[in-house]
């Protein structure tokens, strides 16, 4: 399949939701519905010197653009591949003496591209950028203030011959970026490193229990010639079987929140009311707030309320210690909190899962792998009951838990989890993604170790049997 191919999806009128995309043929879990290069993208201000401005890989050593001294690249190939995108920006940064914020840089890149190519860059692009939703009229006062500031900086920064834009036009571009900007992560998917605009992806509506997931593919950067250097692009991948004609959806928010909280977030960030099945029927809300139950004994409602309030308070303290990098205190607080939750909150309760997640992460960092593995195991068991089986977040959590078990010397559990994570990521990320490739080699390594362990165990048992025989004869 070629980049930008739109054979599997078409634009349609999705009723109240406005425009949408639907499948034009039956799709299966792991199928790439379409892939799309970014219309424009920028690296975050805070990472401008650590992430390549062309391929968005996090690298230890980057080369600086000699002209503007702002843009950084892996090598000449990356720089050449991105020159078209950077050319005008380079001049503008030099003129201004410093680079403006990421929002302003992205807005300018979008406008430069629109001038060069008009809002459509290929036949497979279904919508021009200026037709995307901007919701400028719905912005709260605080955001309007920021928008005005950004527009002001933009006017100072912008240069395109004599071509000038009205404040309204520029505000619209900022609005489009705000509601459609897609966060780009580094090659391992571990850190958010930038933001970009993908027009076709913007047409995919939200569902809290979606049939697709979106993943950033950094392309093939090993090619030495910039002509063969494939572009960074997103892939929309099916997470289950999708019949022809069904609307394609992705989730704009993480599923692990109560339906009312997800709806609030979607209202504030994306300006719509989510009426998906999971929100309207409050599916899994009961599990996410559940009380512990053992042998038919349930704690009283008061006790659950008290336990929840204590956890909320504790999570604030945990966060504070974490920011201060006082990790021993974080662990102490987590353990105390989990003790108080015992027999009060269920293992699928969101508050318990948050504490388990922090505890396993920080203990791994402190290299207390056995303890970390116990917490990770409990967390994953909760996640499995809540997430869709092909959810990318679930896959990544199982992967981390597997690695923790492996480090803890629990090779059997570790290998099992790594295999499970691999199965999920083959669907959500595909076989060519860097994380899937990492998982593949971990899977082979742990398989080998497991074999050795089993062999040794066998040797151990047969030796013991032999010893017993000798002593009994
Ligand atoms: Zn690069
Ligand atoms: Zn430059
Ligand atoms: Zn929903």
Poorly predicted tracts of residues = none
Helix/strand class: mainly alpha
From the N-terminal CA to the C-terminal CA, the straight-line distance is 70 Å
Average pLDDT taken over every residue: 89
Total beta strands: 12
The CATH H-level homologous superfamily of the largest domain: Tetratricopeptide repeat domain
Strand order of the largest sheet: 3-11-10
- Count structural domains: 2
Relative strand content: 5-15%
Describe this structure in words.
The chain has 473 residues and is mainly alpha-helical. It has helices spanning 76-81, 83-96, 102-117, 141-157, 167-180, 199-202, 259-270, 277-280, 285-288, 301-323, 327-341, 350-365, 369-386, 392-407, 411-428, 434-472, and strands at 9-13, 19-23, 32-37, 40-43, 63-64, 72-73, 182-185, 192-197, 205-206, 212-217, 233-238, 249-250. Helix 3 crosses helix 5 and helix 15 runs antiparallel to helix 16 (434-472). The chain has 2 domains: 39-197, Annexin V, domain 1 (Orthogonal Bundle); 285-457, Serine Threonine Protein Phosphatase 5, Tetratricopeptide repeat (Alpha Horseshoe), CATH 1.25.40. Helices cover 50% and strands 11% of the residues. Strand 5 and strand 6 form a beta hairpin. The protein starts with 8 loop residues before the first strand and ends with a helix. The protein is globular, with a radius of gyration of 25 Å. The mean pLDDT is 89. A 3-stranded antiparallel sheet has the order 3-11-10, with no helix packed on it. It has a 3-stranded antiparallel sheet with strand order 4-8-7, with helices on one face. The chain has a two-stranded antiparallel sheet with strand order 1-2. The structure holds zinc ion (3 copies). Residues 65, 67-68, 71, 86, 90 line the site of one zinc ion. One zinc ion is lined by residues 65, 67-68, 71, 86, 90.
């Amino acid at each position: 399949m070629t980049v930008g191919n739109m054979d599997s999806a078409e634009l349609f009128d999705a009723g109240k939701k406005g425009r949408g995309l639907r499948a034009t043929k039956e799709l299966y879990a792991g199928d790439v519905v379409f892939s799309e290069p970014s219309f424009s993208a920028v690296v975050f201000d805070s990472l401008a010197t650590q992430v390549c401005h062309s391929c968005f890989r996090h690298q230890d050593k980057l080369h600086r653009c000699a002209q503007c001294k702002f843009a950084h690249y892996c090598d000449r190939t990356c720089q050449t591949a991105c020159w078209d995108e950077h050319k005008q920006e380079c001049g503008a940064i030099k003129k201004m003496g410093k680079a403006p914020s990421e929002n302003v840089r992205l807005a300018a890149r979008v406008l430069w591209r629109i001038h060069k190519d008009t809002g459509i860059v290929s036949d497979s692009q279904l919508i021009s950028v200026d037709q995307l939703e901007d919701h400028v009229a719905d912005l709260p006062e605080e955001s309007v203030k920021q928008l005005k500031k950004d527009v002001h900086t933009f006017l100072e920064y912008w240069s395109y011959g004599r071509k000038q834009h009205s404040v309204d036009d520029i505000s619209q571009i900022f609005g489009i970026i705000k509601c459609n900007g897609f966060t780009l992560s580094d090659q391992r998917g571990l850190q958010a490193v930038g933001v970009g605009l993908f027009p076709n992806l913007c047409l995919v509506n939200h569902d809290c229990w979606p049939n697709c997931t979106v993943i950033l593919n950094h392309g093939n950067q090993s090619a030495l010639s910039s002509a063969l250097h494939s572009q960074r692009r997103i892939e929309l991948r099916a997470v289950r079987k999708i019949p022809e004609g069904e609307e394609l959806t992705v989730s704009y928010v993480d599923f692990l929140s109560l339906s009312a909280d997800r709806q609030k977030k979607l209202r504030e960030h994306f300006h719509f009311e989510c009426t998906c099945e999971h929100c309207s029927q409050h599916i899994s809300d009961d599990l996410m707030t559940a009380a512990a139950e053992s042998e038919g004994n349930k704690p009283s409602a008061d006790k659950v309320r008290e336990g929840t309030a204590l956890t909320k308070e504790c999570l604030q303290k945990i966060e504070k210690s974490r920011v201060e990098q006082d990790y021993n205190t974080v662990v102490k607080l987590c353990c105390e909190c989990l003790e108080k939750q015992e027999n009060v909150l269920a293992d699928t309760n969101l508050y318990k899962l948050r504490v388990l997640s922090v505890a396993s992460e920080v203990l791994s960092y402190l290299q207390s792998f056995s303890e970390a593995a116990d917490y990770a195991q409990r967390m994953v068991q909760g996640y499995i009951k809540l997430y869709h089986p092909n959810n990318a977040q679930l896959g990544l959590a199982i992967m981390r838990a597997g690695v923790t078990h492996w480090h803890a010397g629990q090779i059997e559990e570790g290998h099992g989890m790594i295999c499970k994570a691999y199965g999920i990521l083959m669907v959500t990320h595909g076989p060519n993604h860097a994380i899937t490739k990492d998982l593949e080699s971990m899977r082979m390594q742990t398989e080998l170790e497991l074999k050795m362990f089993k062999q040794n165990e066998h040797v151990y048992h047969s030796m013991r049997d032999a010893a017993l025989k000798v002593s009994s004869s």
